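Section 5.1 Outputs to date
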Amino acid sequence: MQNTNHIETKNNTAPRQWLVAYVQSCLEKKTAQRLAAMGIECYLPVQSEIRQWSDRRKRVDRLVIPMMIFVHVTPQERPLPLSLQAVSRYMVLRGESTPAVIPDEQMDRFRFMLDYSPEAVEMCSAPLAPGDAVKVIKGPLAGLEGELITVNGKSKVAVRLDMLGCAHVDVPIGFVEKRGGGGIEGQKNKKTKEIQKTKEIQKTKEIQKTKEIQKTKEIQKTKEIQKTKETLKAKGIQKRRQQEEKAVR
């Protein structure tokens, strides 16, 4: 899998917001080109990969999100993309009439992931439980911040996109660290040490308790021996007195 290739145009007019436009199937690239010709900033997420056929191999561009294109427009520019026949409408929030806005920070992370990931970036629209906030510290995606999730038993770094779900990619567990903490492996080692320390403390307490019980038994035994000696001594004194009384008679 090669680094992401994408189609993007720029216009310096501000302020702008990222919106998601629905596009007819198989017309995504042509639409991006027409938007570029109109001076509309847009972003079409595609990723270059090798496809294997029976007689040949070929590099092709895979659409990461088919039938959708991101446009960066001002409120005044919103009607322009809709003037293209291939663009049907904008994505809107349920119960709302205005287009849904994708935060700039989410778009930056998403584009960074696509631009530098050597692995396939996949989209997941199904709800996912929040994962640990992590930062990639090694490899081509170093610097990317996202969530550490598990999909089909594999660890992945995910970037959420409002309304669209999340984009995720395979990243070795040793390449990430929890935000505000050490690496994941370091966190595991720390937890293991804490468990080991707890076990050692528990073992020490058990040994101490055993020693205290043993000491209590020894003290009790000593008292019993002392009591037995005193009892024997008392009997001996009583016996001598009886003998002396007999002798006097």
